[in-house]
Amino acid sequence: PLSNRNEKPVTNPVLKKMYGFFQKIIEKLTNVYGKLLKTALNNRLVTIIIAVCILVISISFIPTMQINMMPMGNNDSITMSLTMAVGTPLENTKAVLLQYEDIIKNEIKGYDTITTNIGSGGRGSTSSNKGSIEISLPDEPIESAAEIQSILRSHFNDFPGATFSFGRGFRAQMMGDDIDIAIRSADLDAALDVANNIMEVINNMSNCSEPSIDMDEGLPQVEVVIDRERAYQFGVDITTVAQEINAALNGTTASTYRQNGEDYSVIVMYQKDDRKTVDDLESIYVKGSSGMISVANFATLKKGYGPVTINRENRTRIIHVTTGITTNEKANVVEEQIKQGISSAFIIPDNVTVSYEGSWQDTTSQMQLYIKIILMAIVLVFGVMAATYESFKAPLINLATIPFFIIGVIFLYKITGQAISLMSMVGLIMLVGIVVNNGIILVDYTNLLVGRNIPIMEACFQAGKSRFRPVMMTTLTTILGMLPMCFATEGQSVMVQPIGVAVVGGLTSSTFVTLLIIPVLYSLVMKKKDVKKKATLEISENKENN
User: Fold this and answer.
1) Are strands 252-259 and 262-268 parallel, antiparallel or unpaired?
2) Global confidence as pTM
3) What whole-number distance in Å separates Cα of residue 494 and Cα of residue 488?
4) Which of 67, 86, 265, 334 is deepest in the core (most CB within 10 A)?
5) What class does CATH assign to 220-303?
């Protein structure tokens, strides 16, 4: 009917046709569902086995899927950093960057601007051997960021002695490097040797990109090694030695004078010609117990290189070897390959410890946390349903269908080619509360029919057919409401796209499974209750006949 006593009849011819069209579709779907449900109820064990097999097959696809901490959208810019040998003149660094500018202009299409920064180091420092080029991309670039990086990477070998790396977008910077290997040791030289060996292993792997060590190449230095016994014999204090050498090289403020209202410092230091060579340093005199003693009498000067920075963590020296991974590679697989390469290439000394960090380890720990949250959500949902039904069986029937939303989630993610992320886990948490709604509708109405003394098998069949329409309406309205989120690919909206994909895929599969599995499970779980009711009815009828 097109109306009831509480509604006005539909008179618009267009609406009548639309209503009739959808009515026919619902009726056909209801008839098809009725046949499927009847088959499922008559073959309950087979139905459950098929559903479980599909679930297991779907779960087996998870290891083949990409897993990221956060969804990665299109980059609006690409930053390529250049590092040359320490002490490289600024003009040489500039020449390399200008050549790369020409490569960009000739080979890359559809960029907005090119910004070149010469003499810039990391963390705001300045170095003549470093620089960077930033390429700004339009909203709809002709070539993707990965394609542009591939073009630029093909020219790396054209510049021997130069090291290039690509910067990471804002979200990627928050996540950290794909793979981060931390080397800890009290012996900095031993840690650096291990780091260099790991770099050799990574450089030989084709699925790693832009590996780097967070310790810059050391600056030239002269180390003053003091013979403490000889220094003691000459009555020389080590602190005094350090002060005298520093004063000779860097100067010391002897006095100040004022002129025209301005104060000027008087700095005393050796002349430039007297502090050029190691021999000049050995000729510095220090006051001893018996007079002035030259440094050469109690110290040895060694040329070498010293680290620019020394990082410590919990008072232990630490070096990070980081690397990205190429497109379509999985961080966990690459990390395992690196471990195997290290174990076969060299032996890690006992005084050095190596641990694996980076975005993959962070993602793993966060995924474990979200799984705990999902389990907690299931417990809370069960508690609410148990209190409502005043029974444990009905809530358990509903909860048994929750794992089946994984089927649709994995299927839709595989089709769209998206990576699983923490935002996907947010969608799964939402699904825990959404998918049970359809089951509540079916179980509640089935309980009502059973309460009217209708046999359980018949009650399950009638409840499924009569509740098919509201279940489909609930599902369709939710799916249609989430579809815009599934197609959100512009700007920051890409962050919420995995939620929409997870909800749409999970709700679709769970609805079909719920419509078949819940009646089957209900008929199995509540079978004894049906037998007891029949026995009670037979006894009461016998009493009335007597």
Assistant:
1) antiparallel
2) 0.67
3) 6
4) 334
5) alpha beta
